């Protein structure tokens, strides 16, 4: 019995020593894994990829609201990679705070106007982004916003709820049809093509587009005609803005555009708020220069509730939800995670932004 107790104690001591060694080994392994900061509570698919990879140690701002800037600057210190969303400004200040270990920025967005590309290029930091996976969701939302604006659905819902629905009237809440219309696209890319494909069954008569240069391969997919910037304004019954925000497109939708548009035209923007001069848009809508506008993006975001655009019945404003489907947001999260891991391994990213 006594011998058995001694043997048991020995085994217990050995177990403790093994556990201590295992813990020390785990800590050493963790210390050499690349350090990553995730700036937002991203959808589960992306988090699962990071956790199961065993290739990184990561910390996340566990909230659906943006991480405070001061907190962000502290958390990125010493990081090898950052997985961010479009609300985080990745500029020289943040890159300096992160330090020389930073190798990869992976943004869960197709837009990249929140990234200081020159700074990233100068520091040889790789950038991943998430195009393609959100094309269908954005196209669907654009069509929904166009129809909602053109057929005055928000106004109609309000009237039904507040007692405005009286006897049937011949011209009450009349809107505009897509049948036999001309649809213009400002900036023809994957999303512009997907929008046109969804609108075609509505018997649209003609698709036109304008861009920096003609894009015949994409245009042929939807039988769209290339026209000048002025002509897309003059001819369009519905104008969908799909261009990226760049120095060249900043406030490109301004008085010059709106004064050339038809009085019965509908303006739709699901790209970036910065491409629109909102003061000029307010004037165009309030004076009847154009019939209506549907916006999924604004400047700033969120748009203050006392902004003049909210006072207009002919302006439908959504809180930047074009990619907000469960399928798409999970796909974006997964792609952002895979971009990050590939970049940290020194391999080509599935979707790398060429700087």
TrEMBL record:
GO cellular component, one term: cytosol
GO molecular function, one term: NAD binding
Domain D-isomer specific 2-hydroxyacid dehydrogenase NAD-binding: 143-322
All copies of domain D-isomer specific 2-hydroxyacid dehydrogenase catalytic, residue ranges: 36-352
One Pfam family per UniProt: 2-Hacid_dh
Gene3D superfamilies recorded: NAD(P)-binding Rossmann-like Domain (3.40.50.720)
Signal peptide: none
Keywords per UniProt: Oxidoreductase, Pyruvate
Family to which the UniProt record says this protein belongs: Belongs to the D-isomer specific 2-hydroxyacid dehydrogenase family.
Protein name according to UniProt: Glyoxylate reductase/hydroxypyruvate reductase
Species whose genome carries this gene: Triplophysa tibetana
